[in-house]
Design a protein that fits this description.
It is found in: Cytoplasm. The chain has eight helices and 15 strands. The chain is of the alpha+beta class and 348 residues long. Helix 1 crosses helix 3. The longest helix has 15 residues. It is globular, with a radius of gyration of 23 Å.
């Protein structure tokens, strides 16, 4: 350990997404290659001597206790735990979360010394993994509110690869086998006799960790919600969701020295007639078993919506991934056209 192939794969994966800025300490980690990366893991992160590093991924993450703060992290999967090496900025923006981050005052005045916070989720504490729509993100759930993390990969390939690696590592865990399931027919297995509603598709791994995937009804619910926001102008039968993707909206902030752009996480939904931007709660739904009350905000909150027929042109940047798109809509003054969509946005 480790094999040549694994070394090469981890080195290739150790790249920070270009559009996201991270602290100096994480830039240092991203600069490590091959052997140096594995040695760094064993010397600074690993909790047990004989654990093996199996997978590395850079992703934005959200914690259940701080659902509004998205932070960049280096996610390391080993044979014992999942480690989230967090960007320093997260620690400073969450001073009030002292109970969560059990802080210790460190006297690190030396500018060449950088300290990062590492959140550890042991595989033995893992209970379920919820995969988001179209594999754009996934949520890892442990035994308490402190142990719920969502990885916003915004990339189905990264999500799929991580889930595959996680399943492989969980197979190595020695857990007592589950009791033999009683044979059930399709309807009693997936359907609720009270409501007749299909449950989400669940795969129970041999380690007893549940992998929960969305079913077709979730898209139906989303289509209904979109139609509701359109104030019933569109027939629900003819409403098709063509695209669901997690994006960043670019807001240009004018400062005295220079123009900087801030990236606001959004969910983009394209239907056959409209383009929508939503603020989505990626971490509170579905409700964890220990939740006493529903979350303070809805899963989807409409930010903006425009009709496709008002779209004038689409400007495309020529840079590599991630691609920047600018949608230019006709500035139509007729209130009649947009009234139903602007009601939420410009209310009060």
């Amino acid at each position: 350990y480790p094999s040549e192939f694994l070394m090469q794969k981890i080195t290739e994966d150790n790249q920070i997404p270009l559009h996201l800025h991270v602290s100096v300490s994480l830039q240092y980690v991203a600069g490590l290659k091959g052997n140096a990366l594995v040695e760094f893991f064993h010397g600074n992160i690993a909790e047990v001597e004989n654990e093996e590093l199996r997978h590395l991924m850079w992703s934005s993450v959200l914690f259940y206790k701080t659902p509004s703060v998205e932070v960049m992290a280096c996610v390391l999967l080993s044979t014992k735990a999942i480690y989230f090496l967090l960007d320093d900025s997260f620690i400073h923006t969450n001073e009030h979360q002292s109970d969560f981050w059990n802080k210790e005052n460190s006297n690190c005045e030396n500018s060449s010394f950088h300290l990062s916070r590492c959140f550890v989720l042991k595989l033995n504490d893992l209970q379920s993994v919820n995969v988001g729509l179209f594999d754009q993100y996934f949520r890892i759930t442990g035994h308490s509110a402190d142990h719920i993390v969502t990885c916003l990969t915004r990339d189905s390939y990264n999500t799929h690869t991580f889930i595959q690696q996680l399943m492989a590592v969980l197979s190595l865990l020695a857990r007592t086998p589950s009791p033999e399931p009683v044979d059930k027919d399709f309807y009693s297995e997936f359907g609720s006799k009270n409501t007749g509603k299909m449950e989400n598709y669940e795969l129970i791994h041999s380690s007893r960790v549940k992998f929960i995937y969305p079913n077709e009804e979730e898209i139906g619910d989303l289509a209904f919600l979109v139609a509701e926001k359109m104030d019933g102008l569109t027939n629900l039968q003819s409403l098709n969701i063509l695209l669901y993707v997690l994006v960043f909206q670019v807001n240009h902030v004018e400062e005295s020295a220079q123009n900087t752009s801030s990236l606001q996480p959004k969910t983009l939904i394209l239907t056959s007639s409209d383009l929508f931007l939503f603020d989505e709660d990626y971490i509170s739904y579905p409700l964890p078993e220990f939740a006493k009350e529903p979350p303070k905000r809805d899963k989807y909150q409409l930010v903006d919506g425009r009709r496709i027929r008002d779209l004038d042109r689409v400007l495309m940047g020529y840079q590599t991934y991630p691609q920047a798109l600018t949608f230019v809509f006709d500035d139509v003054q007729n209130q009649d056209l947009m009234q139903n969509l602007t009601l939420d946005h410009f209310g009060e």
